[in-house]
Structures are given as C-alpha cells and as structure tokens.
Amino acid sequence: MASKPDKTLETFPNPFSNRDYHIHMEIPEFTCLCPKTGQPDFATLILDYIPDKKCIELKSLKLYIWSYRDDGVFHEAVTNIILDDLVAALKPRYIRLIARFYVRGGIFTNIIVDYRKKGWKCKSLILMPELSGQLNFRE
C-alpha cells in the first residue's frame, strides 16, 4: 500500500537514555502554501535534538512533514506548530528547529525556535550548527 501524508508522529524508546547525545536531521523538501496567494513555499528544515526517553521514527516524520504540502500557513506559524508537535511527541531534553525558506519576492526567511526541558542542564558542550551565510537555494 502506498504511503500518504499523516500528522501522526511515532516514536521509539531511546536506546541510550542514560546519556545526552545530539541527533541532527536535515529535511530539504518541506513545502506548504502561502496563506495569502496559495503559491507553494519551499524550505529546508534543520532539526537538532537531545532525546530523553523517546526518539522520532523517521518514516512517520517524513509523512508528517509531507502533510503540510497543501496547508496554507505562514512561515512563523508552521515552524512553531512543528516544534510544538515534536515536543509533545518526544518530550526531549532539548530541541531546535530551523526553517530556512527559499527566496520569495526577493526575501529569504529563516525561523529558529527551540525548547529546553524544565530543569535539564547540559552535561557536556553541545555544538549545534549555526546558519553560515544565506544558502536557501538548491545547488
């Protein structure tokens, strides 16, 4: 049976919940629709998180991301909604989502949102990639 978009995020038990470790994902094919014009907006999502008891299952993440393809939503809203859904599903120690939208009308938009579990303190230095220059285009 063919896959279809789905807003359900599945998880699996963190196999190393006794330590902090960094999971980095890049999702270069995010699409949604401009709520004003109905035109497609394209972005690369950069997801970094430190799991607690759960990790995200990748196929469900793919189908979840695909589910926004026909949604009319502002960049700021969709980035925050995705982060909130990931926090609800994972309850991570730390999570950061960067949405790097491709140029539209001569304007690049980058949205950065994060969440830190109450009381969690980083056990070691965490190097998370920062945006280095404007690369919101396909090479």
Automatic annotation (TrEMBL):
Its main location: cytoplasm. Gene3D superfamilies: 3.30.1130.10. Signal peptide: none annotated. It catalyses: 7-aminomethyl-7-carbaguanine + 2 NADP(+) = 7-cyano-7-carbaguanine + 2 NADPH + 3 H(+). GO terms for molecular function: preQ1 synthase activity. The keyword Glycoprotein does not apply. It is found in: Cytoplasm. One of its GO terms (cellular component) is cytoplasm. Pathway: tRNA modification; tRNA-queuosine biosynthesis. The active site is at residues 34, 41. Substrate binds at residues 56-58, 75-76. Its EC number is 1.7.1.13. Keywords: Cytoplasm, NADP, Oxidoreductase, Queuosine biosynthesis. Belongs to the GTP cyclohydrolase I family. QueF type 1 subfamily. NCBIfam families: QueF-II. HAMAP family: QueF_type1 (MF_00818). PANTHER family: NADPH-DEPENDENT 7-CYANO-7-DEAZAGUANINE REDUCTASE. This is NADPH-dependent 7-cyano-7-deazaguanine reductase. It comes from Nitrosomonas supralitoralis. The lineage of its organism: Bacteria, Pseudomonadati, Pseudomonadota, Betaproteobacteria, Nitrosomonadales.
